[in-house]
Amino acid sequence: MLRQFVGLISPKVKSLKLLYSFIRKFGPVRIKELSEMTGYKHATCSRLVDELVQAELIQDSGLGESSGGRKPLMYVINPDAHYLIGVEITNLYTTVLLLDAQLTIIGAEKLKMDSQCTGRYTLDFVSRCVDELLAKQSIPREKLLGIGIGVLSPIDQERGVIIQPHLFTSDGWEDLNIVDYLSQKNNTIVFLENGTNLAALAEYRINYWKETDNLVFVSNDMGIRSSMIFQGRLITNQNEMADAFGHMIIDVHGPRCSCGSYGCLQAFSSLPAIRNEVIRRLKRGHDSFLQEKVGAVEEVDFFHILEALEREDTLVLDVVKEAAYYFGIGLSNLIFLLRPDIVICGGTLVPKPLFYEAASETALNRVKHYSNSNVRMYRSTTAYNIVAQGAGCMVLDSFTEENLP
Ligand SMILES: [Zn+2]
Predict the structure, then answer these.
(1) 269 CA to centre of ligand 1 in angstroms
(2) Where is the secretion signal located (predicted)?
(3) Which pTM was predicted?
């Protein structure tokens, strides 16, 4: 029935679609609540819900608590009604997930990207995984709704291609229309979207959907990226500016950034900026456990820095604290501008000591100026599959919500 939710639909199918969406968002939920939320009469709601049950799209969760009489029915979506494939392609790994309709990971495959991973080789691997993952779980092909793909490199959505394929160790990505190639091979619909947007979408749908419809997701790794859900819609554009947050100027007298400007957040808080500052201080003779770790200071890499951070090395702690302070200033600027209810921080440093605590403290201290602001900050889900989960979610959303391309 989900396939009938797309395109020009009758008022009745529209109502079914709306109810399915409410149950997906608020489930386990009773008919009484659904009737209040939709404004449909109790009897109408009951009849429509019954139709969704008959189509096996929703089911009773069995969670209703009886207050003496019969146990009330509490509906949730049926996770087994449809399945999704979520893919993340990066220059390090390609991840393929099989997800059920509740976005639970049913199966996963990973490909380490090396010199043999040309565009076609990688997409053939994805197609093979689709067959194998479905077969392993004995899921019939008709239950697959489609394939979603997330990439962190810039993409041209219209042509379905990755714009900066030089980041990959192998070639064969230029002019390869990922969307067409995969949809022909797998005979299903395929969507391509920016990875940061998909991480925001997955966090929203899986963890925060019931709480808010306005959230911001930021991540700090080699680059600093942001994405936003506004009034329940993922904000996307064709301009590929996911890393623009990193080029917000924090100090006009600051260090030169890779973009040519001075004092961008990227030049203070990103992993390369932290590494540069650690090396600068080592060269000045500051004490650190890193001195025993490497021969020449230039050999210091991100793994050394993360290890030093875990060991509470004073030099690295100082540098990370400063980077986090600037990141917090950047975050507060973002909060003032976008006024989200929730900010989710992701990236390599977030699960490590100090960075997240210092950054969120700085941001929240600045926001305190507005006493009625109740913005909350959270760490991103530590699972590494959040982008691929978001990619699968995008496919389901294309049938049930009306907020995606
Ligand atoms: Zn910059």
Answers:
(1) 11
(2) none
(3) 0.94
